[in-house]
Amino acid sequence: MTATSETSAKRFGYSEKVMDHFKNPRNIGVIEDADVTAKVGSVACGDLIKLYLKFDPDHDQIKDIKFESYGCAANIATSSMMTEMVKGKTIDDARKVTFKEIAEQLDGLPRIKLHCAVLSRQGLEAALVKYEAKRGRVKVDDSFVNKILRGVLDPVEGVDIISAKMVQSVAVEEGKRVFMQLSAKAGSELAKSLTDDIHDAFEGLDIELNLKFKE
Amino acid sequence: MSQPVEPEVQERELVYLDNAQTTRLDPTILDTMNEFMVDNYGVPGGEFGYRLEEEAREAIEQAREAIARRINASPGEIIFTSGGTESNNVAIVGAAHSDYYKGKRLVTSRIEHMSVLRTVDKLTRQGFEKTVLNVDHEGFVNVADLKAGMQDVRLVSVQHANQEMGTLQDLAVIGEISRSNGVLFHCDAVQSFAKEKIDVQAMKIDLLSMSSHLIHGPKGVGALYVRDGVKLQPLLEGDDRERGLRPGTPNVAGIVGFAKAVKLMTHEDSFRMRQLRDELIESLLTISDSRLNGPTGERRLCNNVNVSFRYVEGEAVLMHLDLRGLVVNTGSACYSQKLEPSHVIRALGGTLEESHGSIRLSLSKWTTKEELAYAAETIKEVVKKLRDLSPLGKKLPAQR
């Protein structure tokens, strides 16, 4: 046989930069004493990341950020690039980073993999909002809950459950008790997977979740 | 024994374990094929021909005989096509559009190849009814459902070996149910042909699809067995070649190469692959949180291995393996063009998560013990590497 494994650094339509971040992900791992964590995506979807952030409270600056990934090469590479781009930035500046810029910094992504850049950006947003809630700077209300739910995916369609219109109503009592009505059927595989993912999304916050599924 | 180990992955020859996708051409076949492209480049003409035509005719008829013998058919019952997809289309559409048959229902299974499923779907848009049989957790079709639903059926189309997890259906049982109800039985045997025993008489098969490129033959050629007396409506109009079912100039070199590939594939090859397959399965299942998809033993295609690893995603596994010179396949959604998980793995009733970490390894007659040892070691290393990155499956301090 004459074929060898090394014909090109490019594979599966990915740029060399994506391949580099896939092979050698930056900022991989956990921060044991993280100020905030954010888990976005879905196991059922095969696309999930967990972020760990540590802040400099005096300057509202991201002192350290690490991630873990369960997903494809694009999932790993976009998370790696995102963490590189926001590490050391203030919360305001980090928020200015768009998913398009993450993709551009990787010399582009295959069109069907752009959602991975979106997911890593949603993970960042979820982490920042959770941090602000913990510091008492944002109120835990409908809008806060919606922001967190943007990081939870419909495992069948792969889009967030707000866009997929799977969340029928949200109510928050005393900034603590969250009630949700979801369109999935109670007892289904989908309901089980959503229950796990939504609990994961709110992990670390002093919140009581009440999920209701369709009977 | 003391040969130096190749230190550089780049310098290693590929370990190719995607032989259910396609195989490498047997180089000895190429010489035979060349003869029919460069020297004897004629094609059969009318009933009698000049020397070049007769050379080609004889070569094609010998090929027909070799393929017929392999499945216990007569040479006149074999027609050559461009491959498995065409054979499936000619068989199913040909039976559906034939005036000789009455039934309005087509029966198939959830785990068929797309060239069967989409063809059946197309026919339902033209007025046919369909039954899509469910399969159990190992991929076997529900025979009781088949038996109970034979009213007004024209054709049953059930594959022999599954393309992803190697389930070998019990064709004799399906054939008997079909025959006793006066229903045509088509079988897509593209994955199993020349590797597993097929007897169209004993199994009561009326139509059987075969392909060349999965047994080290050339791509672009296949065959369809059409039982004597079965009347199909041709897909293409043209001359009377291949009983009028496949008009046009035949791919002589391809057909000759196909027949040679069949002859070169022996029972010993299947026996050896089956042994190596079981050793590989055993070795891969020593990885924690792994699971074999599909059946074991004689009920599994001799060269198919399909294992799911929890907490890792298939595309990432596949890419790391590719970087290490190991070629496999995955049913992961992330690897498919439409981001949809494999319809086969989903049909087994597993969770979505299980479909993402499924890896298919398919052996060839040339696969060696050493290659499989490298494959198993490399997969262990890569699964561990990815699990180290993964937030799943770790012993977390009790939360919630």
User: In one word, what is the shape of chain A?
Assistant: globular
Radius of gyration of chain A: 18 Å
Q: Give the % helix of chain B.
A: 25-40%
Strand proportion of chain A: 15-25%
For the terminal residues of chain B, how far apart are their CA atoms?
Answer: 55 Å
Give the integer mean of the pLDDT values of chain B.
92
Within CATH, the superfamily of the largest domain in chain B carries the name Type I PLP-dependent aspartate aminotransferase-like (Major domain)
Summarize the main sheet of chain B: 7 strands, mixed
The CATH class of chain A, by name, is: Alpha Beta
CATH topology of the largest domain in chain B: Aspartate Aminotransferase, domain 2
Question: Per DSSP, what share of the residues of chain B sits in E-state strands of 2 or more residues?
Answer: 5-15%
Can I get a quick summary?
The complex is a heterodimer of chains A (215) and B (400). Chain A is of the alpha+beta class and 215 residues long.
Question: Could you give the topology of this structure?
Answer:
The complex is a heterodimer of chains A (215) and B (400).
Chain A: H1 16-23, E1 36-42, E2 47-56, E3 61-70, H2 73-86, H3 91-95, H4 99-105, H5 114-134, H6 142-149, E4 167-173, E5 177-185, H7 189-201, E6 208-214
Helix pairs in contact in A: 1-2, 2-5, 4-5
Chain B: E1 15-16, H1 27-39, H2 51-70, E2 78-81, H3 84-96, E3 105-109, H4 114-125, E4 129-133, H5 143-148, E5 153-157, H6 171-180, E6 184-188, E7 207-211, E8 222-226, H7 252-264, H8 267-284, E9 290-292, E10 304-309, H9 314-323, E11 326-327, E12 329-330, H10 343-347, H11 352-356, E13 358-362, H12 369-389
Parallel strand pairs in B: 1-11, 3-4, 3-5, 5-6, 6-7
Antiparallel strand pairs in B: 2-8, 7-8, 9-10, 10-13, 12-13
